[in-house]
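Hello,

Our lab assistant flagged a job as stuck in the queue for most of the afternoon. It eventually completed. Since we weren't sure the result was trustworthy after the delay, we are filing this so someone can double-check. Below is the sequence as submitted and the structure that was eventually returned. Let us know if re-running is recommended.
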Amino acid sequence: MRFLLLFLLSQIVLSATAEEAVKVQTQIRQVGYTLGDIARQTVLVTAPLGYKLDESSLPAKGKVGGNIELKDVRWQAHTAGALMRHQLVLDWQVFRVMLQTRAFPLRPLELQFRRDGKRLNVQVAASQVLVSSILPTAMEPEYMQPRADIAPANRQTSNVVWGLIAALCGLLISAAYFAWAFDWLGARIRARLPFRIAYREIRAISRSGMTSETELKLAVRLLRRAFDKALGVAMTQEQLPHFFAKSAHLQTLHPEISVFYAESERLFFAGGVTELTLDQVSKLSRRLMLQETP
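-- returned structure --
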C-alpha cells in the first residue's frame, strides 16, 4: 500500500512539473475588423520534449456564437533543445456585425499533448476582437445617399500621339541611316560588298582637298583593291577572264572594266600617262556597286 501511494505521488509530481514547464503565448490583432474580415490568431505552446499534440483536442471548424466562425486551423511542431514548440494558426472570420462597434470573444482552447501514455492539458484563454459596423454610427440622411461619380478630366492626347509617332519615325530613319553608313546591316558586309566600300571611299576623296593626280591614283588604287577582294587574289589585266567567269553578273561591264585595267596599269607602270579621270572611276565604282549582290 505504501508503494502504491509513493507511485501515485510521484506521478502527480511529474505531472505538475510537466505542466509548470508549459508556456503559452497568444498573438492576435484585436482591432480593425469589420464584416468578412479574417482575424488570424497564433498560439505558441512550449512543452517538454516528446509531447505531441492530440489532434482530437483541436477546435472544430464552424460558428463560434452568432458572429464569428473558425475557417481554418494549421499547426506545426519542432524541437528546440530539450523543449518541443508547437505553433497553431487559427483563422477566425467575421460574418455578422452590429450597428455599433462590439468586442466579439473567440473560442477558448483546451489542447492536449501526449507522451508515452501521459497526457498534458493546456488551457488557452479566449481572446477577443473589436469589430466595427459597415454603416455609419450616425444614420443621417446625407450618409445614406451614395455620392455622385467623379467624371475623369478630359485631356488632349492627339499632340502626344503624333509627337510619339514622329519620334519613332525619326528613330527608325536614323537607325536605318547609321546602319547603312557604318555597314551594320551585315556582320561581314565589308567582305561581301567590296565595291560598295570602294564607291563610298572614292566619293569621299573629292572632299579631301588633295591634288587631282593624287586623288586619281588613290581612287584607282581603291577600286583595284575592291577587284582583288572580289576575286580573292591580287588581280591583274591578264586575270580578267577568270574574274568574269567567277562574276558572270558583271559581264555587261566588260568593256569598262577592261579599259579601266589597261589605263590603270598605264598610270602606275608607264609614267603616269592616262586618259582616266576621277569622275570616270567614281561612275564605274557606282555601277559595280549597283550590280553587286550581298
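-- support follow-up --
The delay was a queue issue, not a problem with the job. The result is valid. Strands lie at 23-27, 38-48, 52-53, 62-64, 68-80, 83-94, 102-105, 109-115, 118-124, 128-131. The longest helix spans residues 158-181.
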